[in-house]
Design a protein that fits this description.
The protein has a single domain, classed as 3-Layer(aba) Sandwich (Collagenase (Catalytic Domain)), CATH 3.40.390.10. It is globular and about 45 Å long. By secondary structure, it is α/β, with parallel strands linked by helices. The chain is 33% helix and 17% strand. It contains 9 helices and 8 strands.
């Protein structure tokens, strides 16, 4: 009897061990993580200014693999279609072939709005994916609360923002609310356009620069001048994904390049402008705008496709 009980206990232990090993998400990446391991990782390569990893994202010189951690509040996971479109965008403009998506479900911070500093703090608390020997890691947080800088009375809402070289926030609650206002566009459309636009800034578009070790660096220099003179870091070419009209006017309090706590935001994407653009695109074969020839030329000049 004791031997039979022992066999059962051993069997249960093996089963539990196997279940633990199989704790993976849709991408096949283990999601359990180890807090001590994360604490011991050198995170300095993921704490640089927006655009600083442009060449590393575009080429395979230093990193052959790209790991994207999608951290989302429960119930606010992005649509599979938008993620497929996003990966296709990355493959179209970079030489990265080994792209892994790791989904990380998180509890709600229980905030009515989120300041950029709060989003940065949540990243420090929850992010598990950082650069390793041959893998470049990007963190994208899908929030269940709008940006603190939004003014709904004026119809000014933020869809997404980039604030470090491998860090981005997508305001998923705002995206869903915006998409529901038009029968011509879907959550997938707005998610795709927002992800691609913000990642364009991680690519260093347009003529994005930052200060490192006291030196001003342009991460993806323009081959030809196409930056909007009235909106830094955005394209002046009509119909481009990086078009300046996608950014809020400079009087909008949510659009700040440096907030009071020092976190840098290269772009706060306009909900109203995006809605207008996607409604215009709805009758065309490509529902989401792509990069224009000038932006593509800039990326190619920095090692991209």
């Amino acid at each position: 009897m004791k031997r039979f009980s022992l066999i059962i206990l051993l069997g249960m232990a093996i089963l539990l061990a196997n279940c633990s090993k199989d704790n993976t998400d849709d991408s096949g990446t283990n999601n359990s993580g180890n807090e001590n391991e994360v604490e011991n990782i050198d995170k300095s390569g993921n704490l640089l200014p927006t655009g600083a990893s442009a060449n590393d994202l575009l080429t395979n010189t230093n990193f052959e693999n790209l790991l994207i951690e999608i951290a989302y509040v429960a119930g606010y996971r992005p649509t599979p279609e938008a993620m497929d479109n996003f990966i296709a965008f990355l493959r179209q403009h970079t030489f990265k072939q080994n792209i892994t998506i790791n989904y990380l479900e998180l509890p709600s911070p229980e905030e009515e709005t989120l300041e950029l500093q709060e989003i940065g703090d949540l990243e420090i608390e929850n992010r598990t994916a950082y650069n390793t020997d041959n893998t470049l890691a990007v963190y994208i947080y899908f929030a269940d609360a709008p940006s603190d800088g939004d003014d709904s009375d004026e119809g000014l809402v933020t869809l997404g923002a980039v604030y470090r070289n491998t860090s981005m926030v997508i305001y998923e609650e705002t995206i869903r609310s915006l998409a529901s206002r038009s029968v011509l566009i879907s959550n997938e459309d707005v998610e795709t356009a927002t992800l691609n636009h913000e990642f364009g800034h991680l690519f260093g578009l347009v003529d994005l620069s930052g200060t490192q070790n006291g030196e001003e660096i342009t991460y993806t220099p323009m081959v030809n001048d196409h930056e909007d003179p009235e909106a830094a870091d955005h394209c002046a070419v009509e119909g481009c994904l990086m078009r300046a009209e996608l950014q809020f006017n400079t009087n909008f309090k949510g659009e700040t390049h440096l907030n009071k706590n020092g976190i840098h935001s290269a772009c706060s994407l306009s909900g109203e402008s995006m809605l207008s653009l996607l409604n215009t695109q709805a009758g065309q074969s490509a529902r989401v705008p792509g990069l224009d020839a000038e932006c593509i030329l800039d990326l190619q000049n920095n090692g991209g496709r």
